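User: These chains co-purify. Model them together.
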Amino acid sequence: MNTMIDTPEALIRLAGITKVYGSGPAAFQALRGVDLSVQAGEFVAVMGPSGSGKSTVMNILGCLDTPTSGSYEFQGVHVETMDRNQRALLRRHFLGFVFQGFNLLGRTSALENVELPLLYRGEPVARRHAAARAALAQVGLDGWEDHTPAELSGGQQQRVAIARAIVTNPAVLLADEPTGNLDSQRSREIMALLSELNRQRGITILMVTHEPEMAAYAHRQVHFVDGRVDRDSRTPVAEVGA
Amino acid sequence: MIWNTFLLALREIRRNLLRSFLTILGIVIGVGAVITMVTLGNGATRSISDQVASLGSNLLMVRPGQRIGPGGSAGAPMFKVADVQAIAAQVSGVKAVAPETRKAVSVVVGARNWSSVATGSTRDYFTAAGWTLNGGRIFTEAEERGGKAVCVIGATLQRELFGGGDPLGESMRVADFSCQVIGVLAAKGQSAFGSDQDDTIVMPIRTVQRRLTGDQDVRTLLVSASDGNATNAVKARVETLLRERRKIGANEDDNFNVLDTKQIAQTLSTTTRIMTTLLGAVAAVSLLVGGIGIMNIMLVSVTERTREIGIRLAIGALEHEVLLQFLIEAVVLSSLGGLIGVALATGASIGLSSLMSIPYLFDPAINLLSFGISALIGVVFGFFPARRAARLDPIDALRHE
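Assistant: Joint model of the two components:
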């Protein structure tokens, strides 16, 4: 995997990204020139104190936000010039999201939650159901298809959210503090699941966390301080969990 | 995608059943009221035109005097039977013309007595006034010429004096003479002016003139235009002839007037139609109010479901897909209200028209129109909330508590 890092075909390439909120004297510079490349198949933990810009960079990476300046290439395509709908289509076809607060649709069964992204892709109902069941089975929720979020534990809800994120076979999974609302036992289970998805299916994972224990599951830790990449370190695969 | 969105909207409505019902109540009432008002109005219009038609088809009523009503005929000479013969002989496009002279009488059969009106006329009266027989026969020409005491009675007299039994051949005492019943008229029901048309006795005009009125006057001429002849053309010819016969100078006003029943029917129908339109318009206002109710609920719903919208946008829903979802939700809601309104209106219209004894006329146009407008209201009043949802920023929406 390390051999891929220096190839020019980076999956994601940020160059000189800045982000300014507001204007005039009230302006706040959240990002001050971020350069970051991510290869396909990497598992990257994004860390840093609050206000360091890690959430902003994740929003830009997730195509939910646009940078003020700089360039963002996704599979060699410039994203920073895309309009709202183009970015939505990019999210639909290449990205999966896992949030700290799970963000499942309430009063909606696990199966319906998981098949939601396929619905927007216009997949026929039989394919939707099959794919959603397979995704739920992969996250270990066989037999829980008809339960609504209220009937599931926090750990199970996050598994449903992960199933929803991977059901489309995304190129990148963006996880924003996926274990932030879970106890340590559930957190380890979720991290084990993410590691497995990364290892077995080769899904590139970008994960924001402030817990070093969770960051240790990733192969690479990117530290943000004051809107810049402060440290970019790699953990050899063998050392994970050591 | 549209079908899925539709199912999604139905699910959303089912989730908030009570709220959805209250939301569409305004539309239900609006659609229901509009359809009921228009249906009842149509029934009333039909009822009136039916009643006027029962006076006789294409009927002109000619009376002495310049206007209708008490005192209207003061000073104006009455018609004579000769006028009837003149019209029959000289005016083209006339199917039947009959004199009419009436007298209130009391009628006695055994122990029963009844106040009615005796009408003296000719055999043509039955054609002109649109009467058909329910039994027996009308008087013969010989009976007419001889002024025989024979009479054809209406359904009301048959009921009141003969207890609904067979009166043919029986005698009844009319004023101070005895009269043989030779025929029974088929019932016509109430007239447009509320009087009972079946409370009538028809005799040869000579009988009435000799035995009841004691003069040779004819109070009314009934002129029935033949089919295909415009009544106003016949009316003009009758007027010209009568002016001649009554020796009215070119600068003088008519001393008689010709009433066209078709005109009366049209006037009455127009009046009811205006009332129907007015009532329908008032009801339509409640449709508008219902639409505002839907907009209000949809705005609340968008605020409530901000996070859901955020999730949808984050996983790749396009702006127009979110817009469509909320728009369809609003349209499904309002159409549902429209459907319930149509069902309610059908029930209310059937019930009320039987209560008001007017015919129930199902009007597909107004049902479709009202339903269409209810769906349109969903589009119009759902658009603003839907656009607000579609334009949310996904990051803000996801953060929304």
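The radius of gyration of chain B is 33 Å.
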